[in-house]
Specification:
9 helices
């Protein structure tokens, strides 16, 4: 059989608890806790206190014990509760960022949240949060083409001039890549993925 924690109050502690228990400025929770402690100090058992205050007996026992262990400070504030998901270790966060920036997954062009999660044994949402905090967007790609033709500017001027000042009675058409043809290799190396910038 459990024995309830004995409560012995000094006159100062009793006065403080009585003030808190009656003060309208005190929260309802704190008034309830102060009342529990005062009745416990008066010699009441937990079940009797629970009946008198119409509270759960487990709750009465919990606040009685906390006051016995930590005094007034222990009933003023609730104990901090850790989050359900513990934060990832710094080393693991760094490894996620390193692999995202420096490596490619096998058989894919870039990392997805699920691929990275499976690779390192974390949740996909954790990967997403780390990418967001690091400003990484591996699913996005920005492409560009630089010409090494020495006459590029002259040709560019001709094309832009044609758009701005087409010949009279002429039809100007613009054509892009043919849909059936796809360039699989690039002539220039891409710029890597980094914080705040997509892979280009």
């Amino acid at each position: 059989m459990r024995v309830a924690a004995p409560i012995k109050l000094t006159p100062k502690e009793k006065t403080q608890l009585e003030t808190v228990a009656k003060a309208r400025s005190s929260s309802l929770r704190l008034r309830e806790r102060a009342a529990i402690v005062l009745l416990a100090a008066a010699g009441y058992e937990n079940q009797a206190i629970a009946r008198r205050l119409r509270q759960d007996v487990m709750k009465v026992g919990r606040w009685r014990k906390r006051y016995a262990e930590g005094g007034m400070a222990a009933i003023v504030k609730d104990k901090t509760r850790p989050g359900r998901i513990p934060p990832l270790a710094k080393a693991l966060r760094k490894e996620i960022i390193r692999q995202t920036v420096e490596e490619k997954p096998l058989g894919a062009t870039h990392w997805s949240r699920s691929l990275m999660a499976a690779q390192l044994g974390v949740s996909a949402s954790s990967v997403g949060r780390i990418w967001a905090s690091a400003g990484l967007k591996p699913h996005r790609l920005k492409s560009f083409k630089l010409s090494n033709d020495p006459n590029f500017e002259e040709k560019l001027d001709d094309i832009i001039g044609l758009y701005l000042h087409p010949p009279e009675h002429a039809l100007v058409l613009s054509c892009d890549e043919k849909s059936q043809i796809q360039a699989l290799d690039r002539t220039q190396p891409g710029l890597p993925l980094k914080k705040g910038a997509v892979k280009r």
